[in-house]
Write a structure and sequence with these properties.
The complex is a heterodimer.
Chain A (H helix, E strand, L loop, with lengths): L1 H19 L9 E12 L9 E8 L6 E10 L5 E11 L5 E7 L3 E8 L5 E7 L4 E9 L1
Antiparallel strand pairs in A: 1-2, 1-8, 2-3, 3-4, 4-5, 5-6, 6-7, 7-8
Chain B lengths: L2 H26 L12 H13 L8 H9 L16 E8 L5 E7 L5 E3 L9 E6 L3 E6 L2 E6 L1 H5 L5 H6 L5 H5 L16 H18 L1
Antiparallel strand pairs in B: 1-2, 2-3, 4-5, 5-6
The chains are: A mainly beta, B alpha+beta.
């Protein structure tokens, strides 16, 4: 009888151990390809760059962060492009925030975009001076 | 029953119960990796900093662009014949069809969006819009208004002028337009991403 009870205690302990293990989850990121924002801006040198073509990679099920990378195309300006790389995250207020380095010395920052992912952004230079505003439209 | 056995029964029950409760709490407790993991000060700080530096918005919302492009672009308030000094060009935007739109204010009135061919007051017509200026025709003569930022460029320190991202031919020649991936057209992923974002935002709102 005592042996049975000891076995019961041991079994109960063994059953409890896995549920006490850490709740950390290793997720799998997804890549959202061929994303396109239309961009309009009055910043000199960037006003002709109207297409932000990027991919975004992240595990939205387990994280609030994404890597964003691609190019800012300038079809109205000698058909060139600027490479862009940066990240996006979901703020505690449920908004989407995105910061991208454009080319070598410019930053595009979009703060508190709503669920439409469209809204006002700003271009900054490497010194943090604002160069002008931009409007991004995620169709 | 053996008295010793009888004493062990409650012990076994307690151990099993504690283990089950602890495990239940561990599984159902909010996971730091799932919940919004950003310090709430962060976005607020970024937002306040960004907003304090934001130039009075000249970039129009798209729905405004579409609405104004489809509706008469001049409001019913009568203009006086605009002298060039009364006309301020705050910005130039590009509408979805690729045509240029000028963001214009006359005599400090609210800004409005104008296309080529739109009236600027009763006697003037917009004839040209480029990256840095708008030209309108008034009484047979053309007057050109420079973008406000371009007008102020000469007053800015040389340092910020050098830091502006004016593309050099070498920069553009070294950065060709993006090749087609062959998988989908640009924008083909927007629907899926929008749906994923909406679902994520709902999750964040529910967790708040």
């Amino acid at each position: 009888m005592i042996k049975s009870l000891k076995m019961l205690c041991a079994t109960a302990t063994l059953v409890a151990i896995p549920t006490l293990a850490s709740a950390y989850v290793v997720g799998t990121p997804d890549t959202y390809s061929d994303l396109l924002w239309r961009v309009s801006s009055n910043v000199s040198g960037l006003s002709g760059c109207t297409e932000l073509q990027v991919d975004a990679t992240g595990d939205l099920a387990n994280s609030t962060k994404l890597s964003i990378y691609g190019a800012l195309n300038c079809p109205l300006q000698q058909s060139g492009s600027y490479g862009v790389v940066g990240s996006g995250y979901f703020g505690g207020d449920g908004s989407f925030n995105m910061t991208l380095v454009v080319g070598t010395n410019t930053t595009l920052q979009c703060v508190r975009l709503p669920s439409s992912l469209s809204g006002s952004c700003s271009y900054y230079d490497t010194f943090g001076n604002i160069l002008g505003s931009a409007f991004v439209n995620f169709r | 029953m053996d008295p010793r056995a009888r004493r062990l029964i409650p012990v076994a029950v307690v151990v099993a119960s504690v283990g089950a409760v602890w495990g239940y709490v561990a599984v159902t407790a909010p996971r730091a990796v799932v919940g919004p993991s950003i310090d709430p000060v962060g976005p607020v700080a970024v937002v306040s900093e960004a907003r304090s530096h934001t130039v009075p918005a000249v970039a129009p919302r798209v729905d405004d662009v579409v609405a104004r492009a489809q509706s008469p672009s001049i409001d019913s308030t009568p203009f006086i014949a605009p002298a060039a000094s009364n006309v301020v060009l705050s910005g130039v935007a590009t509408s979805p069809d690729g045509s240029r739109l000028a963001i214009v204010s006359v005599d400090r009135s609210p800004e409005t969006l104008l296309r080529i061919g739109d009236r600027l007051g009763p006697d003037a017509t917009v004839v040209r819009i480029d990256d840095t200026s708008m030209t309108y025709r008034l009484a047979g003569s053309e007057r050109r208004v420079l973008l406000k930022a371009t007008q102020n460029a000469s007053a800015t320190p040389a340092r910020s002028l050098q830091a502006s991202p004016t593309p050099t031919p070498a920069a553009l020649a070294g950065a060709p337009a993006m090749a087609r991936s062959g998988q989908g057209e640009p924008g083909s992923g927007n629907e899926a991403f929008r749906a994923a974002v909406a679902k994520k935002m709902q999750g964040i709102a529910a967790a708040r």
